[in-house]
Fold Outer membrane lipoprotein-sorting protein.
Amino acid sequence: MKKRLLIAILFIFTYTNCVISQELTGQQLLEKAIQYHDPNANWETFNGTLNVTMETPKNEPRLSTIKINLPQEYFYVKATRDAKTTEYTVEKDSCVIAFNGKTNISEETANKNNLNCERANLYKNYYTYLYGLPMKLKDEGTMIDPKVTKKTFKGKEYLVLKVTYAETVGKDTWYFYFDPKTYAMEVYQFFKDESKNDGEYILLTEEAVINDIKMPKKRAWYYNKDDGYLGTDILGN
């Protein structure tokens, strides 16, 4: 009798979890993921420093110090690789660039090292987006697919959220993979043309807690088409 009761309880628990997963909408899954990563809603007022080491094949590591102050609309990144150090500061609509500690940069040096305010804003958007996930998926112009799917990736089953963007924001199609029990974000993937299997996937491992936000400590990048390894970003303390 006890054995039958235990089996019945396990069946009900499993069935209930399955139904809950199937009934989750895209927005509901996103809210659960945000609750896991940013339970106190700190991202909206984020003001902190990220130390990131980028490791890529056949290159020396690139060491970056990134400062983000969202309320002040301030962004700063200092990146060093080999004997070159670049600094970009974006504060609202202004941009300041430094190369090897000097802001008085010749046109030749700027062109040779691709130093410009367009690149400064690219870095701002890049780091703010990736380290602000999944919270950044609530930004205007982000279109969340209402249907949540299940997919096995690298041997593990995930709840998957499909995201597209308004034309003014972006043209890529993104997929975000969440642990079905904790709703932690563990993988994301993007395609420019899904029919060609182009784009990349990113594996997220370990966590670093910055301003009470759980961020991926390691982000390893691979090509979708052949699993070719691109590099790893490592978030320090």
Observations:
- The helical segments are 2-23, 26-37, 107-112, 117-131.
- The chain is about 25% helix and 40% strand.
- The chain has a mean pLDDT of 92.
- The radius of gyration is 21 Å.
